[in-house]
Amino acid sequence: MTTSVWEPVIGIEVHVELRTDSKMFCGCAVGFGEEPNTNTCPVCLGLPGALPVTNQRAIEWIVAIGLALGCQVTPVSVFHRKNYFYADLPKNYQISQYDIPVCQDGHLDVDVDGETIRVGIERAHMEEDTGKSRHVGAGGRIHAAEATLLDFNRSGVPLVEIVSRPDIHSAGQARAYAQELRAVVAELGVSDARMEEGSIRFDANVSIRPEGDDVLGTKIEVKNMNSFRSLERAVEYEIARQVEVLEGGGELVQETRHWDEEAGMTHSMRVKEGSSDYRYFTEPDLLPMVLEDAWVDGIASRLPELPAARRSRYAAVGLDRQTVAVLSGADADLRRLYDDAVAAGASPSSAANWVTGEITATLRRTGSSVADSHLSGAIVADLVKMIEEGDVSSSAAKEVLAGVTEGEGLPRDVAQARDLLQISDTSALEALVDEVLGEHPDAVERYRGGETKLVGFLVGAVMRASAGKADPKLANQLITRRLEP
Amino acid sequence: MSLADLSLTEAAARLASGEVSAVELADAVFERATMTEADLHCYLTIDREGARLAARESDARRREGGALGPLDGIPVAVKDNFTTRGVETTAGSQILAGYKPPYDAHAVERLRSGGAVVVGKTNLDEFAMGSSTEHSAYGPSRNPWDPNRVPGGSSGGSAAAVAVGSAMGAYGSDTGGSIRQPASLCGVVGVKPTYGRVSRYGLIAFASSLDQIGPLARTVEDAAALLEGVWGHDPRDSTSLVGDYPDLGRALATGVEGVRIGLVTEFGGEGYEPDVVAATRAMLDRLEAAGAEIVEVSVPTADVALSAYYLISPAEASANLARFDGIRYGNRVGGETTEELMARTRAEGFGPEVTRRVLLGTYSLSAGYYDAFYGKAQEVRALLSREFALAYEKADVLVSPTSPTVAFEVGAKTSDPLAMYLSDICTIPSNLTGHPAVSVPVGLDSAGLPIGFQVMAPALGEERMFAVAAEVERLAAFTARPALAGAEAA
Amino acid sequence: MAIDIDIAHVARLARLALDDSELETYRRQLGVILEHAARVQAVATGDVEPIAHPLGLTNAFREDKVVPSLDRDEVLAQAPEHRDGYFVVPPAMEAL
Question: Tell me, what's the ipTM?
Answer without folding.
Answer: 0.96
